[in-house]
Amino acid sequence: MGLLSKTLSLADSNKIPFKQFTKKYNISLCAVFSKFDNDFVITDSTGFDGISIISSISSSDFWNGTIKNKNEWQHYNSNEEMLPFFQLFSFNQKDKITGISIRYFENKIFMACSTEKVNFTASEALTKDLLNLSFENNAQLNIEQFNRGKDVTIYKYKFDFSTALNFHIQKSLRKTEYTEIIFETIAKELLNFLEKSFPSPHIVSRTTKNSINIIYCNSSNVPFELLKAHLVKECYALLDDESKFISFTLEGTANSYKELIDFLQAE
Q1: pTM listed for this prediction
Q2: Which residues, including other chains, have CB under 8 Å from residue 90's CB and lie 6 or more apart?
């Protein structure tokens, strides 16, 4: 996996998954910058759009010159204080930010942003969990508890983002050596988006590098074209105009438990 083979954890024991951490503390906009050579790049995030993730590539000199006290929380609340960090965000994203909190570790930087809707607070419990974050993909599909219910049709959808994401990255990325890392970070944001769009009893599973499979329990006969148009429109916030290149296809229906397993674990 090239640069992705580097370790992506802040500690070696008592780990808490990154997704679980953000949900536990209701963090809607945050990112982890990981160090590669002399640069920092976002490798995990919640709520960041594609341009912000691409813009996250920043030098160690920038962070060392901006963050005065490492291993301590730094909070920036005025536009003047936040100004040096605005280069790391898209125009749309930075307009929503009302505060920035940063914790600088040796090879990691955690950034959380407050917005008008959600205010970030660095509690003692949060800080303790932050020191033990895990970024490995250990998600377990909760298929055993799946209950299709009555008069429900189980549809199989494939969400392919390869073309959209490649075009989006190529349009803005200058340091092409980070293409793989940026691709993976935005792909995880897309997975987050789909998991929120298709909550239980629907099931979402990333099956390949470029695609996500979805089990959709439809009891209200939502038209496929309407669902597709809605998803592409919502993805605009993440991928801008390149969202139109997303491929969302109907792969048939599932009539057995085995079909569910096969589809969600396809490679």
Answers
A1: 0.90
A2: 49, 50, 51, 52, 55
